[in-house]
Amino acid sequence: MTVKPTFPEAVTADPIFLADVRAGLSKSQKTLSPKYFYDEAGSELFEAITALPEYYPTRTEIGILDERGPEIAALLPKAVALVEFGSGSTAKLRCLLRHLPELSAYVPVDVSGDFLAAQAQTLRADFPNLAVEPVVADFTRPFALPDTVGMAPRAGFFPGSTVGNFEPAEAATLLDRFGEILGPDSLLVLGVDLVKDTPRLEAAYDDAAGVTAAFNMNLLKRINHELGGDFDLEAFRHRAVFNADASRIEMHLVSCKDQSVRIGGDSFPFREGETIHTESSYKYTLDSFRALAATAGWRSETVWTDADALFSVHILRR
Ligand code: AVJ
């Protein structure tokens, strides 16, 4: 007979994840960071979200990059090193690469080394002349570019409206940091989701098939599996609302009843209707985003939208 340890998961638990969860669930408005959505299951759910009829950002951004590829290529210096901050699927990058034959290096920066290695391998197979130089780093913290980038001119690539996940002040700090990493005279190609009517925004984050709900709930599953939590997944539900004053979509997990959740040795009480705020996705106008970028020293070179003005691609210079 084997003796089962009380919290087998706790042995391998990521102490930073645990500390973040403890701190977030101890606040009066409980929070969990959206960066914890993306374990393997979460990344697959996000891929499924990008294909949903209601989720317009991904296909719209790819459409803009496809259409404007030649213009983007014309703006970038020859033999540029392209630094992608946080590399997701390579679909958007591939759009650009079709138009950028003279790239000197592609530098994807991501916290997941395994993901980067797999991605680098497929890219090298498809683009044998491209120098792929992955950097394992958290792009919200300072890091150095690989030596091989040398004196090549640099451009940053930050698609997907990931910038919308940050509070505006944090986003400005991040854009400033990108400027420091890239160095003087650099360009930044950035995808930014736009303000639009509330029903359309809310549907994009609360789809009929329930994929976004599953994506949100996956956070609780992760806490149960990795931190030994006992969230009752039937006793929480997904909610997405547009907060017009703050110009952001908010995702929450709503407690369906008064209950208490144990994680490791701690207990966290929930009232019926109380929420965990799991994500903010800020929506900008063309002007409000240009103004934000300006506070970080980036000037707008040009900006494009799709015909319905759902999404924007900005080219900034600093
Ligand atoms: C990856 C942050 C751009 O805010 O639209 C999609 C994440 N969350 N559906 C977004 C997300 C719910 C997405 N970003």
UniProtKB/TrEMBL annotation:
At the top level of its lineage, which domain of life is listed? Bacteria
Q: Where is the Histidine-specific methyltransferase SAM-dependent domain?
A: 19-317
Keyword Protease set for record: no
Which keywords, in A-to-Z order, does the entry hold?
A: Methyltransferase, Transferase
Pfam families annotated for this entry?
A: Methyltransf_33 (PF10017)
Gene3D superfamilies to which the protein is assigned, alphabetical: Vaccinia Virus protein VP39
Supply the InterPro entries for this chain.
EgtD (IPR035094), EgtD_Methyltrsf_superfamily (IPR051128), MeTrfase_dom (IPR019257), MeTrfase_EgtD-like (IPR017804), SAM-dependent_MTases_sf (IPR029063)
Entries under PANTHER family matching the protein: ERGOTHIONEINE BIOSYNTHESIS PROTEIN 1
Specify the protein name: Dimethylhistidine N-methyltransferase
Q: Which organism is it from?
A: Methylobacterium persicinum
